[in-house]
Design brief:
Number of domains: 2
Distance between the termini: 106 Å
Radius of gyration: 29 Å
Strand order of the largest sheet: 3-2-5
Structural class: alpha+beta
Largest sheet: 3 strands, antiparallel
Shape: elongated
CATH superfamily of the largest domain: Band 7 domain
Number of helices: 5
CATH architecture of the largest domain: 2-Layer Sandwich
Helix content: 25-40%
Strand content: 35-45%
Order of helices and strands: HEEEEEEEHHHHE
CATH topology of the largest domain: Tetrahydropterin Synthase, Chain A
CATH class of the largest domain: Alpha Beta
Number of strands: 8
């Protein structure tokens, strides 16, 4: 009635491989289906030029360095690029203290100094700091006479750095380099107000 099926060693190996592959697929599907309900940890990788901020329930907990990390489902990892980030504030028309208009462009590099503050303080800390830099440029130029702005541009950047230091610390940003790229007089301008 029942015929005994004898398998060759090659067929046995193929059957074992097929069953192992089917078992792996079943485990993968089960993980995807039940992974949201069960607290399986997830693997995150932080590369050599990043820092990771572990966030739990919307609150930044700690900073982790390069490496791989297993985190529980209620935690996520926000990557922060720690390399310098260039910026430019192009062609701002500003009135100096003597009423002469100056068109000035500045640029430089900034980087993340405190990843925890960078992630926690603002949804886009670099954009917030950019707005602060524009305002600091306007304040620095408006406190000086136009001749001083054009002749001693390092005093403009020094005053800007002085104005920006507190806000940079709040946002977790370090200003690496700040330079005036272009400054030219525009002539006498009228104050509105």
């Amino acid at each position: 009635m029942f015929a005994l099926l004898l398998e060759t060693p090659a067929e046995m190996v193929v059957n074992v491989i097929v069953w192992a592959f089917m078992l792996l697929i079943a485990v993968g599907v089960a993980y995807r289906v039940w992974g949201a309900a069960l607290p399986f940890p997830r693997k995150f990788i932080v590369s050599s030029f990043h820092a990771g901020v572990v966030v739990r329930n919307g609150k930044a907990e700690r900073v982790v360095g390069p490496g791989s990390y297993w985190l529980a489902q209620n935690r996520s990892l926000v990557l922060c690029d720690m390399r310098p980030n260039p910026f430019q504030i192009a062609a701002q028309n500003v009135i100096a203290s003597d009423g002469i208009g100056v068109q000035i462009s500045v640029g430089g590099e900034q980087k993340i100094a405190n990843p925890l503050a960078f992630v926690s303080e603002n949804s886009d800390s670099f954009a917030a700091f950019y707005l602060e830099m524009r305002q600091a440029l306007r304040v620095a130029v408006s406190e000086m006479e136009s001749d001083a702005v054009l002749a001693n541009q390092s005093s403009v950047t020094a005053r800007m750095k002085e104005l920006l230091t507190p806000r940079a610390a709040e946002l977790g940003i370090q200003l690496i380099r700040l330079e005036v790229f272009e400054a030219m007089p525009l002539g006498r301008m009228m104050h509105q107000g």
